[in-house]
Structures are given as C-alpha cells and as structure tokens.
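Protein: Histone deacetylase
Species: Taibaiella soli
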Amino acid sequence: MKYIAYDPIFAHPLPDGHRFPMAKYELIPGQLIYEGVITEANLFAPQPAAEEDILRAHDADYWRRMKNQQLTEREMRAIGFPLSAQLVEREIRIAQGSIDCALIALQNGVALNVAGGTHHAFPDKGEGFCLLNDFAIAAHYLLHHQLAKKILIIDLDVHQGNGTAAIFKDDPRVFTFSVHGQHNYPFRKETSSLDIGLPDGTSGIDYLNMLERELPALFASVQPDFVFYLSGVDVLATDKLGKLKLSLTDCKHRDEIVFSLCRRQKLSVAVAMGGGYSADVRQIVTAHCNTFKMAKEIFDLH
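Structure follows.
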C-alpha cells in the first residue's frame, strides 16, 4: 500500500548553505524504513502538479512569474530562499503530493506527505519558506472534483497558517482552524475561521487539554467530510523558533487526539509535516516519525 509521499527533491532543493531545515525530509523515510515501520513499497514520488490545479488557489500572474523565475528580490527575501528552477519544481511536487495524499486518504483513511504544510503562501505571494500553498491546492482539487463538500484544515504548526486563512477567508466550504503561538511569526496575523493563539511557554498539559476540549466541539459544529492536518513539530520545547513547551510525548499525544477523532468519525485525513527547527535534528525526525507511527496504528495501515 502506498500512502507516503516522498521525493528526494524535498531534501535537496537549494544550493549548499541553504539546506536547513531540509535534511529532515531525507531522514524521516530513512528512519521509518530502518525501524521497520514502513517499507519502500509504502512510498511514492509525486509528479509535478498541473497548472490548472495550482491556479485554483493562486493568482495567474504570481504563478507565471514564479515558474519563469521572475519573482523580485524583495519577494524572495520574504520567502527566505533563493529562487531557482529546482525550488519551483520542489514546490509543485509537494503540492501534487498533498493532492495524491488526499486521494489515497479517501480510499484508506489516511495518507502522509513527508513535506508540505506550506501554509504561509498567499494567493499572490509567498513568505516564510512557502511559495505555493499545498493544502489550499489540494482542498480546491477535492472541491472542484466534487470529492468533498466541507473541508476542515487543522493547522497545529506553531506559526499561524496566515496564507491558508487568506485563501479561504470568503469560502464557506473550507473551515480553517489554527492553533499557534500568539506572539510568534507571522507578527501580522490573518483571520482563520477559528484561531487559538497561545502564550509563550504554554505547557504540554495545557495544550493537550485545550485540544481535547476544542476539537470534538469543532467537528460537531463544522461537520466536515474531509480533514487536512498540518502536524508541525515546532511546538516542541527544544524548537529554536517555537516558544512552546511540549515534549516528544506531548507531541505524540497531540497526533493521537487528531487521528483518533478522525477515525471515530470515519473521516479521511491527509497529513503534512510542517515546521520543525530544533537544534538537534534527531528531535525533529523522532517527532515526525511518531506522527507516521500513530497514523499507521490508528488507521491500521499495512
């Protein structure tokens, strides 16, 4: 069964000196295979996303200038990467990976993109290491092909999903839920369907109690028929950019809460890894691998 999107380009899109935080994308599948959690047969390499799918979420002029490498230096400074053909290729393959994961999840309950979670990309601009918004592209794909009518995006990266919020601000078919550090990047927040901004230093206990309180009520209110889950591990206490205080165990429990609720309600969920910036890459890889293990256990994947 293929249920994990991975391509080597996820890990090697940039010139030397610009790889962080890219190394984790190579290490995650390697670690899962080493531990016997998955095999090569569970991995698939996505093709580039079709232009028509990209343009449902992004402005035509922005996309044209991106693919022709005509974005300005100022635009690329906001994104944080040097522009290259390989970077654009990486972005469109990540986007297709999330589309593919959504389609696989409809069949098997869950699928996971080793990359993805590019939630700072707006319709007409990128920022925060994000050029194209993979969840927005994939959500629009499902809606366009009438494979879903009401989508819930659960964004548990420590940074607000500002681009995602902006893309769907006037679209009642997509409910955007972001739990993030209130005083963290981006410092100018957009308005999601529901935002929960947490103070610096929020503990794992408080975080998990909030999630167990909010998520069931949210599912009951929104009544989605498909879920996208951004499982960023920059919520860890070890994260250089996170400012929250979750442990590896807390992060694993967070994933369990989300996956268990989706499984109980018979909802398919497509997952992207999102951020993770701990100084010790082993912390990042362990936390992300725990997400894969939890998904496999709860959805009984083979």
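Remarks: The domain at 4-299 is CATH 3.40.800.20 (Arginase; Chain A).
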